[in-house]
Automatic annotation (TrEMBL):
A GO BP entry: methylation
Transferase found in the keyword field: yes
Listed InterPro entries: DNA_methylase_N4/N6, DNA_methylase_N6_adenine_CS, RM_Methyltransferase, SAM-dependent_MTases_sf
Protein known as: Methyltransferase
Keywords: Methyltransferase, Transferase
Length: 318
């Protein structure tokens, strides 16, 4: 996830918003036969330059909305002629939405949803017909995001909510401690999306004595609740970048929802975990982040990628 961050590179803290536009130079054009890319850019500027349907898998881990200032949403819903509305309601009824006062959530960005929605629409445009979109959120926003994405993509395109459960850090004594993230999964075409259950790592049975020895040895397919630790502070994965996600989580996503040679996109790339896993599994990738510190981390972590701007490659060793 990208946010206002600092890492142990000796560089000053740089806000997430980064650079608007590309200045005098332009990032390399994407091509299905071109190199893997790591790009420093505002994703709002960069995504429209990518072609429709280019990516089989898009994973995004946008900034979590941790602000406390919230305004209620008022939206007037008007019944539409069946099949002509822009929203899908209960029992398949369609609606037109006349937006009144929109959500306003104060976090790193003045208006969280105004920031997120156009990027999600771009992600949808960039998905291939057999493509899948994973949006990594937390308990603060997942329920609002589900409603928003149902409206944008259609409820029939919702595939799963994955719960990543972990157990670390302080525990509140005034409420149940919050120890999970939520990942919403949408498919571009419910009839054509790619999902390879056999490619996913298996889990041990909780009661192996109740299944055959063959099944016990093979393990079971994970459910939609994934127990996985955070990135170890002393582990090989650790890059020093805040909010780094573990490779094990991305490995399941990439293995299940893409094939070797498919293109994967992450436009809140942060430390580059998506790119690292994609490369390890034989996928192609484009990683975008506006923070030059993130791009420096990715440049070291992803030596096979073409980095833009080139001056950020291995700058920590300069």
């Amino acid at each position: 996830m990208a946010a206002s961050v600092s890492v142990d590179t000796g560089a000053a803290e740089v806000p997430h918003r980064g650079l608007r536009g590309f200045g005098r130079s332009r990032p390399p054009a994407w091509s299905p036969d071109g190199p893997d890319l790591v790009v420093q850019a505002d994703n709002a500027d960069y995504l429209p330059k990518l072609p429709d349907g280019a990516f089989t898998l898009i994973y995004v881990d946008p900034p979590f909305n941790t602000g406390r200032t919230q305004k209620r949403q008022n939206a007037k819903m008007v019944r539409a002629v069946p099949g002509e509305g822009d929203r899908v309601g209960f029992n398949g009824r369609t609606y037109q939405t006349l937006l009144g006062q929109l959500h306003s959530y104060d976090d790193v960005f003045e208006d969280y949803w105004s920031f997120l929605e156009p990027r999600l629409r771009e992600a949808w445009r960039l998905l291939a017909e057999d493509g899948t979109l994973y949006v990594h959120l937390d308990y603060r926003e997942v329920h609002y995001a589900k409603v928003l994405m149902d409206a944008i993509f259609g409820r029939e395109c919702f595939l799963n909510e994955i719960v990543w459960a972990y157990d670390y850090g302080a525990r509140s004594k005034s409420r149940w401690p919050t120890k999970h993230d939520n990942i919403l999964v949408y498919v571009k075409n419910p009839e054509r999306y790619h999902f390879d259950a056999e490619a996913v790592d298996r889990e041990p049975y909780m009661a192996p004595g109740m299944v055959t020895p063959e099944k016990a040895a093979r393990g079971k397919l994970p459910t939609d609740v994934w127990w996985h630790t955070i990135v170890s502070p002393t582990g090989k994965e650790k890059t020093g970048y805040p909010t780094q996600k573990p490779e094990g989580i991305l490995r399941r996503i990439v293995a299940a929802s893409s094939r070797p040679g498919d293109w994967v996109l992450d436009f809140f790339a942060g430390s580059g975990t998506t790119g690292a896993v994609a490369a390890a599994l034989g996928r192609r990738y484009v990683c975008v982040d506006s923070n030059p510190q993130a791009v420096r981390v990715m440049a070291d972590r992803l030596p096979g990628a073409k980095v833009y701007p080139a001056r950020l490659r291995r700058s920590s060793k300069a």
